[in-house]
Design goal:
- With about 280 residues, this protein is an alpha+beta fold.
- The chain has a single domain, classed as Thrombin, subunit H.
- The chain is about 20% helix and about 45% strand.
- The protein contains 4 helices and 15 strands.
- The strands form 3 sheets. The protein has a 6-stranded antiparallel β-barrel with strand order 1-2-3-8-7-6. A 6-stranded antiparallel beta barrel has the order 10-11-12-15-14-13. Strands 4-5 form a two-stranded antiparallel ribbon.
- The longest helix is centred in the first third of the chain and has 29 residues.
- It is globular, with a radius of gyration of 22 Å.
Length: about 280
């Protein structure tokens, strides 16, 4: 029987293929962990949209989970009415927030959606102008959250950077689309937006946009371009606009929720106390 000798080139090629395959498998695992699994479906009254698990913070004996979405996804759950206050002896505006239903998807063999875990969730912060809403789940279990793009890397983003968009488009289970950053300088209603050419559809609102290379979360899909043909509007799905993470960070700082991305930031409860004390001083 002849012995087969493998030369150094063959061995090197085999090792390259082996390590490439392993790296690809790790990459696919990370895409599931940091993009697919943290993407949830959000239901508010008759509205269905998307959200991402922004952070899952470990506390004493439990986890606090916060979800970021668009205000227009949960708008129907927020009511502001003028009512008579018997203590103040006058009519005042009162806000009522309905309970939100968040669905975390369960998967078989990593990718096959087999059902959902429905968790009742509360709106803890919202802003109509920014089109942002922060939700807190009524659950103390650990769940997968997104990997956030650090603040010092925001200015390093460039047009042509490959991205993914993930959300519950048309109300179905979360799915990704791929594209690139197309613009970093759009302005809508006097607020900054970034444009992606990754296709986005109705229902993706509130989901996530991520860098392909690092799976880092860079913003919220919120709008798509629309043109008019005769009397009918036509959506341009490959011109989608996201609320950039830089604006999300700023909003969280302004509302006392910086602790959700910065472990050194003041706790929200302490921020509220300081704000109340400053109000008394005035």
């Amino acid at each position: 029987m002849k012995k087969i000798r493998f030369g150094p080139v063959v061995i090197l090629t085999t090792l390259v293929v082996l390590f490439t395959t392993m790296a690809l498998a790790d990459s696919i695992d990370d895409l599931h962990k940091f993009i697919l699994y943290p993407t949830v479906r959000v239901r508010a009254d008759n509205s269905v949209g998307s959200g991402v698990i922004f952070t899952c913070k470990q506390c004493t004996g439990r986890y606090d989970t916060y979800i970021l979405t668009n205000h227009h996804v949960v708008d129907s759950a927020i009511q502001i009415n003028e009512e008579w206050d018997s203590l103040e002896k006058k009519s005042i505006k009162k806000e009522k927030r309905a309970t939100i239903e968040v669905e975390i998807f369960k998967y078989l063999n990593m990718s096959t959606a087999t059902g959902t875990l429905l968790v009742l969730t509360d709106i803890v912060e919202w802003n109509k102008d920014h089109d942002l809403a922060l939700l807190k789940m009524r659950s103390d279990e650990k769940v997968e959250s997104v990997k956030l793009l650090p603040k010092d890397k925001v200015d390093k983003l460039r047009i042509f950077d490959p991205v993914y968009v993930c959300g519950s488009g048309l109300g179905r289970s979360p799915f990704p689309t791929a594209g690139q950053i197309a613009s970093l300088s759009d302005e809508i209603d006097n607020l900054p937006y970034w444009m992606l050419n990754a296709p986005s559809v109705f229902g993706n609102s509130g989901g996530g946009a991520f860098l392909q290379a690092t799976q880092e979360y860079i913003g919220i899909p919120s709008r798509i371009a629309v043109t008019w043909a005769v009397w009918a509007p036509n959506a341009v799905y490959h011109m989608s606009y996201i609320i950039p993470i830089s604006r999300i960070y700023k909003w969280l700082e302004e509302t006392g929720w910086a602790e959700l991305y910065d472990p050194k930031a003041i706790k929200h409860e302490d921020w509220l106390k300081e704000k109340k004390e400053k109000g008394k001083e005035k």
